[in-house]
Amino acid sequence: xxxxxxxxxxxxxxxxxxxxxxxxxxxxxxxxxxxxxxxxxxxxxxxxxxxxxxxxxxxxxxxxxxxxxxxxxxxxxxxxxxxxxxxxxxxxxxxxxxxxxxxxxxxxxxxxxxxxxxxxxxxxxxxxxxxxxxxxxxxxxxxxxxxxxxxxxxxxxxxxxxxxxxxxxxxxxxxxxxxxxxxxxxxxxxxxxxxxxxxxxxxxxxxxxxxxxxxxxxxxxxxxxxxxxxxxxxxxxxxxxxxxxxxxxxxxxxxxxxxxxxxxxxxxxxxxxxxxxxxxxxxxxxxxxxxxxxxxxxxxxxxxxxxxxxxxxxxxxxxxxxxxxxxxxxxxxxxxxxxxxxxxxxxxxxxxxxxxxxxxxxxxxxxxxxxxxxxxxxxxxxxxxxxxxxxxxxxxxxxxxxxxxxxxxxxxxxxxxxxxxxxxxxxxxxxxxxxxxxxxxxxxxxxxxxxxxxxxxxxxxxxxxxxxxxxx
Length: 472
Known about the structure:
Layout: H1 4-7, E1 31-35, H2 39-50, E2 54-59, H3 65-74, E3 77-80, H4 85-88, E4 93-96, H5 105-113, E5 117-118, H6 120-126, E6 132-137, H7 142-155, E7 160-164, H8 170-176, E8 181-185, H9 188-191, E9 201-204, H10 219-227, E10 238-242, H11 246-252, E11 260-265, E12 273-277, E13 280-284, E14 290-293, H12 302-317, H13 322-331, E15 340-345, E16 348-352, H14 359-367, E17 373-377, H15 390-396, E18 397-403, H16 408-414, E19 420-423, H17 426-436, E20 442-445, H18 458-470
Parallel strand pairs: 1-2, 1-4, 2-3, 4-5, 6-8, 6-9, 7-8, 9-10, 10-11, 11-12, 16-20, 17-18, 17-20, 18-19
Antiparallel strand pairs: 12-13, 13-14, 15-16
Helix pairs in contact: 2-3, 2-6, 2-8, 6-8, 7-12, 7-13, 12-13, 17-18
């Protein structure tokens, strides 16, 4: 660990500057504490150091070796395994990593003292310069849509970076390799702590129940967090939203939208935005409309038609040529861990949908299935309502294989509908699913739950699943 006393002289509180770490009262540097040492926190610390803040990173857990080495190489003070309460509560501002909930005792103390708390994307926004931002949020489809927009921008020859909840932190990218355009996936947790963050293009895909454990089990609180993505937008900005989503439409009635609204829909005609009618996509953003058949979309399934619509509208706001958008939509490859075909073993297809960490994601996965399905699901339940997928389970699923440390809620929900088998790891789950399948069936791992009971994250879960399939 870097000796804090050697690297944090002048950590006494100063007034936080709005434009960076150097414009501070009394000649000292703005003291900034980064709480949390994952990708988001380390990225924030690297940017803060570059911008002249007096920064220290703290994490109650242990840091990954790679992150520890980065902080040491950058000369950034850090503390792992504990929190220095005196320094934390003397900070002018705190960057809170999105994984840390409000119920955390240190967060409560920070709030009680009135210290401003911001997210890493807020810090990155302050220092992005004149660069533009396309920001994407929603309960389902964020990663797919963000990746497709990035692909459209790259095919359209724009100099851009893919950041946020999808890989590199936004702050790290701004610090190490700034770009004229950032395509940014954003979660509700990141939106909770923005102040001035304003995307040039905001995309709101859908709002369904998720992460209710972080919002006092109040769906309204979660929906309000999603709507923060456009709260600072100006009339020159664009707001792309799903007009077929009842929750979004109801919230629009109670939110003042100043940005240029570009709805996407399959249920009506729109003067601007995008619509799909009779399997034909029309994108209208003021220029000549873009038209193409949904059969030419690389992404299949009704939910991906909404994702593709949103991505095409976002690309159109960047003045990317129609033929380039069309080419990108046709050439996009599916993402790892998102309805990812793994192998066909003795006539049984195995599909990895580990990124489905909530019930609605699993609903979308099942909706796109065309073969009799053995469904592997389970993990950390986040207040799931399994009745949402009951009809699809009855229609498409022949057996459910549970994979988790506590499978009781899933067993109770479906034991009278289909056979339910309980397992406690990926290898046993794959073997049980294969035993329940016959040639012509599909085994779909779409857990509807978080992964932290048995796995490091959803990527680890998906990788273990794929390895188990390959070992059959």
